[in-house]
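dumping this here before i forget
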Amino acid sequence: MAITTQQREGFTMPELEYLAQCEDVMIVPLYRMDRLELVRGPVGPFRPPQKAQAPLWLAVALKRANRCRIVAPKWLSYTHLRELCKQEEQPESMFARLPVHYLETAHILLSAAEDDIADSQDIRRLLQDLREVRQSKTREGLRMLNPMQLQMDNLSAAEINEIRPLFTHAFDMLHRLDSLAASEESQHQSQFTDQSYPEYDDTFGSSFA
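structure:
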């Protein structure tokens, strides 16, 4: 499958946030609402004070209309993010598993429903710390880039998007260099094989006759 220019160069942050808004979050409805028929399938009905699941874009719309409160995801808490930061800072640690759109989701929720998120300012700081330590680990991973693969599990969509342009260009260059080296080695071996030494052939031939 051909790689498009958009795939090679990455997405803008608004485009990533658009994709993130399809993720589900929990809400606490403040009014009774009937079931909604969406393209992705039905959502609701909503009966306060029971929690309900809704796509992020709908949760934000209801929040702005003062029709619900948004329940922060478990990973978007001060305690959990602090532990993640400690885990990421351990030498040779793997990338911690997070939602694929955690950065975009956090940005949307902190912008649209900050009053529903406890310790929101501390969470902003921890998210920045987490982002920086993961960026540092990503740079270390890029230093080990080889023509075959780049193994960095649990990167989020935004983190992959950041390294995509550099990675694709560097990977293409490594492939070209690797192909050039293989071609030169093949030519060198061919020249060596084609060389003949008749004086040695006569000598060895008479010796073993």
